[in-house]
Design brief:
By secondary structure, this protein is mainly beta. Helices cover about 0% and strands about 55% of the residues. The protein is globular, with a radius of gyration of 16 Å.
Amino acid sequence: MTSKPQRNLRTAAVSAADITCEYGPFPDADRIHGVTFDGQQVWAATGEKVLAFDPASGEVSRIIEAPSDAGTAFDGTHLYQIGEDRINKIEPSTGRIVHSIPAPDSGSNSGLTWAEGSLWVGQYRDRRILQVDPATGQVLRSIESDRFVTGVTWVRDELWHGTWENDESELRQVDPTGGEVLKRVQMPDGVGVSGLEYDGHGLFYCGGGASGKVRAVRYPKD
């Protein structure tokens, strides 16, 4: 099932990003792809490894060697990591891959998050978000966007995604049924968003692509 976006940017609430903290660049990691949060640590995909850091201190606490050129997610027990044409389910304590499914075809897979028992995959150039069965990789739903899609996350029942296009980047809340843009959080000039994750306590963690940084952005006030 495909949801067509009913775009109405003039009525979407717009605010400037309130960046509360920056982390990195991290040693031997010159790019951030996916980002997730396990309740205590932030995890960031850097291409060939996934690192965890303490958001209070910024210190790296764990490194897992794994292909990690796109989104990262956490289901409460396991990490999920896009690596090339696979989505690998990883045991955080050991780094062992316990399950693997094919990543959706084409579309330049980018963001990844977990919600409602499903994986949600951002597809950059196809400008869409896919709901994916974590056991089989079957695509259950497609939500279209009018911008390149980078990171993806849920804030309770709100679907948010990052955009990065023509050196402009935003966080956007979109209607998960029709794709209509409801809120826009504009990042400063020159600051992009790759991975995206909400921490459940008022902060988004945003991967910064080639900057090698992760930024904490406050959830916008109504």
